[in-house]
Every structure is written in structure tokens, then in C-alpha cells.
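Translate structure to sequence.
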């Protein structure tokens, strides 16, 4: 697995090859997750690039690692790893909200909410913030206070960001104000 991740690039075809390889074998997936969650490892970012594709296709394979993911999410510093990590958080929130999806514990939900809100108020790249907002919106369907907090944060922060962030914020505020 090490060689596959090391040789991978940010291109979709490369990331798909690594994610497909990992999904075929539980040991490979476990090894890829170990690399992704080790924020001091040089392959940490590349492993996250492919891990978000695994979670997009087969989120149930990720279930045994959710607790560790909730613990590592607030510690991720690299923007290139943060985007796929917040995308995974969104997949988890979305699936947790479905009847036939995965089930997060209340503690896991609260850990995700806390990490995502913290990320949202920090200086992060727009793509990560958009996934933060989407995940918090879904989690807020269960915890009303999350929607209130989300409205406050994105309303205050609106004018300080790019047009892309403002567009995403406008769309979300429309949903929140319904």
C-alpha cells in the first residue's frame, strides 16, 4: 500500500486507482487509513486524497475507523488533507441522517459538530469550509442549536470571503431560513 500511495498524485485517475486497490482488501484499507490518520507521516495528505473516494463509494467500510477519525479531524493542519477530511465528515453526517445509513453515536456526532464549528471559524480554504457548512447543516437537522450557530458564524463571516464562499453561504442561508 505504501508504494501505491507514494506513487499517487492529486489527479482523479491516480486517486481512484489507489482507492479501488484499498477497497478490495481490508488490510490495504487499514494501512491507508493508518497513513491518513498519522498527521506526521509524509503520506498523510496523499492517503486522505484517496480515502475520501473510498468513503464516497463504500462508507460502510470506514465505520470501524469513525472514532479515530473524530479524534484526528481537529488535529489536521494541512489544507490538502483537510478538504478530503471535511468531505468525509459530510459523508458521515449525510449517511447518519438516512434511515439505512451508518449510525454515529451521540458522542461522535458531538465531536464532529465541535470540530466542524472550530474549523469554520478558523482561516481555512473555501472548499473545506463549504463541506463544514454542509455537514453542520445536516447535523443541525437533529440538533437545532447547530443551525442557529451556523447562521451566526456564516452571517458574520460573509463579507470577509471570496465570491465562491459567499455563493455557498447564500444558498445555505436560504435553506436555514426556510
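Result:
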Amino acid at each position: 500500500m505504501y508504494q501505491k500511495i507514494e506513487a499517487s498524485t492529486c489527479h482523479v485517475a491516480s486517486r481512484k486507482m489507489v482507492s479501488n486497490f484499498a477497497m478490495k482488501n481490508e488490510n490495504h484499507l487499514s494501512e491507508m487509513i493508518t497513513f491518513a490518520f498519522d498527521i506526521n507521516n509524509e503520506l498523510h495528505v496523499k492517503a486522505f486524497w484517496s480515502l475520501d473516494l473510498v468513503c464516497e463509494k463504500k462508507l460502510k467500510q470506514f465505520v470501524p475507523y469513525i472514532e479515530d477519525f473524530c479524534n484526528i479531524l481537529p488535529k489536521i493542519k494541512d489544507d490538502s488533507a483537510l478538504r478530503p477530511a471535511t468531505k468525509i465528515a459530510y459523508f458521515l453526517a449525510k449517511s447518519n441522517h438516512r434511515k439505512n445509513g451508518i449510525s454515529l453515536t451521540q458522542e461522535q456526532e458531538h465531536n464532529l459538530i465541535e470540530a466542524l464549528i472550530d474549523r469554520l471559524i478558523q482561516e481555512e480554504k473555501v472548499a473545506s469550509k463549504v463541506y463544514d457548512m454542509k455537514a453542520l447543516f445536516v447535523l443541525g437537522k437533529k440538533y437545532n442549536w447547530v443551525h442557529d450557530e451556523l447562521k451566526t458564524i456564516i452571517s458574520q463571516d460573509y463579507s470577509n470571503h471570496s465570491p465562491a464562499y459567499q455563493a455557498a453561504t447564500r444558498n445555505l442561508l436560504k435553506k436555514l431560513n426556510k
